[in-house]
Hints:
The structure is a single chain. By secondary structure, the chain is α+β, with helices and mostly antiparallel strands. The protein has 12 helices and 16 strands. It folds into 2 domains: 7-118 and 213-335, Polyamine Oxidase, Chain A, domain 2 (Alpha-Beta Complex); 144-211 and 344-407, 3-Layer(bba) Sandwich (FAD/NAD(P)-binding domain), CATH 3.50.50. The protein has helices at 26-54, 65-76, 80-89, 94-97, 127-133, 135-140, 184-189, 200-208, 280-290, 295-310, 354-363, 386-407; strands at residues 7-8, 14-17, 121-122, 149-153, 163-167, 172-175, 178-180, 194-195, 210-211, 215-220, 238-241, 257-261, 273-278, 327-330, 345-346, 370-372. A hairpin with a 4-residue loop joins strand 5 (163-167) and strand 6. The two termini are 38 Å apart. Flavin-adenine dinucleotide binds next to strand 10 and helix 12.
Amino acid sequence: METNTPVHHWNSKQMIFDATGSMLSDEKTDRLSTLLWKIIEEAFEFSAKAHEKDGGKSILAGDSLYDFIKKRSIEELQDEQERETLLQMSEMWGAYVGEPVWKQSLRFAWMEECCGGEEMFVASDYSAIFGRISKTAKEEAKIMLGKKVVSVQTEDRSSGKQVSVTCDDVSTDQFDEVVMTTPLGWLKTHPNCFAPPLPPRLTSAIDNLKLSQLEKVFITFPSAFWISDSTTDSFPSYTNWLRPLYADDTNPHHWPQEIWNLASFTPPHNHPTILFYLYGDCSRHIVNAIYGKPKQEKHDFLDKFFFPYYSRLPRFDLENPSCTPKAILATEWLKDELNGYGSYCNFQTGVEEADKDVETFRDGCPERRLWFCGEHAAPFEECGTVAGAYLSGEFIGKKIVELYSANA
Ligand SMILES: Cc1cc2nc3c(=O)[nH]c(=O)nc-3n(C[C@H](O)[C@H](O)[C@H](O)COP(=O)(O)OP(=O)(O)OC[C@H]3O[C@@H](n4cnc5c(N)ncnc54)[C@H](O)[C@@H]3O)c2cc1C
């Protein structure tokens, strides 16, 4: 609000295509979606209660959110076909956490009960917000861009020695305190960056917390052919193609697909664009297929892959030039070293103490003048988010101020 960043509130309408590519009725969509979210809420509660009782140990580390939904669907729905549809709908969880719903730890599902407050989508970009939050740093600090940290050498605080940080241009600088904001994936792939090595508990936290693979694909058309009335926000914000059985040549694993309608933003921020969210193996398949390829080859691959879905949108007509993509942009976080080759941390089945792992990051190594922040060190309900990454930095900043105030 303070930065006047335009935000959008998605309408609550959704459109769901079943595995054969037929659209579900509005009645079924609403009823099953309401039931699904009720069950997910119950799973959060179940997980939170177990956490309070015994740190979650009464839930097996291997149990997943999917197991919970499956069990509850049998109790809630008589019709086997509807149960199957509900389970397929539950796969949308993957686009929140970046990996399939059957990998979501039930023991730590409570840590995914996200954010609270109003849900908004930034309809333009983050530049004004970045400008605001970086103001003090830009005014007061010396910022060195365009180089990568390759090693961090620490001594015991009691020695009075500073931390040495070496970059890929072989420059080394000394600091009183170092706050590492490199992503979890970077920490996973650069274990030898720290000398001496990080303490075992921190090393195991880096290992225990898994990284998910969320990617986005934007497809822009000459005009938003799927919308019949552009004067009202009446088209569903969200469209979901459940386990498609009709695209075997491009999607033999039947990965579900989903889009958000970016044509619904208030002008001038609206675009004739649909935004696909990909996760897990589907993300890896797409990025591996396009990475390093010439622009036209990428376009052709992506168009072929997504055609079975966008061609099922209302008003699609092969003969109409408005229905042929004008441009396609796919993220390739999987291949980005500075992004840690992934999206963000998630709490997968098998993890024993995800909460303690996050706390371990937050504790850092003050005895070595070394601290950690980022989405993986965020308050529990904000892990994996931009707000969480910001709050984690604020938290460490306060801790350092406290330390210096106490020693003043
Ligand atoms: C597809 C996708 C969709 C998402 N959607 C949402 C959403 O809707 N809402 C939401 O809140 N969050 C969302 N997120 C998550 C959000 O983007 C992250 O949680 C957040 O950006 C993490 O911030 P961070 O500061 O921890 O890490 P980053 O934003 O990754 O910042 C780390 C910084 O460290 C730098 N760096 C890395 N290695 C080095 C090095 N060796 N030397 C120097 N610098 C280095 C990088 O260049 C980068 O600038 C999404 C993420 C993805 C991938």
